[in-house]
Write a structure and sequence with these properties.
The chain is mainly beta and 209 residues long. It has four helices and 16 strands. The chain has a single domain, classed as Alpha-Beta Complex (hypothetical protein yedk fold), CATH 3.90.1680.
Length: 209
Amino acid sequence: MCNLYRMTKNRDEVARWFDAIDAAGGANYAEEVYPGWPGLVVADGSLKSMVWGFPLVTKGKSGQPLKPKPVNNARTDKLDSFFWRHSFEERRCLIPLTGWAEAQGAKGAMTRTWLSLPDAPLFAAAGVWRDSEEWGACYAMVMTDSAGSAAEEVHTRMPVLLAPGDYAGWVEGSPEEAKALCRAWGGDIAVERTDESWAKGRGTQKSLL
């Protein structure tokens, strides 16, 4: 599952790429995005800043509410569940990114493996979004089985990646039409294995939570 991705283009480039109105204002975002941190999203024809992850509120042993946890991935086979259904049916979005990472290696010594589209300097993952009391506007990335794609050698799941010709079908199509796009990427995927620690840099970036 994706718990880290890159978005290294500036807002002007992203807005032009997706033919979107830049409504992100003065919002800051990091080039490496973690769950619970701000990222750029294209929703309703506008480029917006939202928090990556839907808030999940749980309770402690004595019944007191605990700090919400960000649920940042929406599995394709769970889109009809109560947690995701209304967002999937009514609020689908595009998530701009330049690559995503998976952890590989032994526990405690995991390193980052980056995946990207070799012929696309910027591309889109399928997303859903909603407003929340806890964090305001927030989004989640839709994940699918990676079988049959180059990503399969890294992880059993991958983001649903959308070709430009499918952007409108994802955000404007019926739920049935959108769900038909939830499949493994059929084109080339570049895989870059590194010796970077999986946890590298996380403590230096700013969370909105």
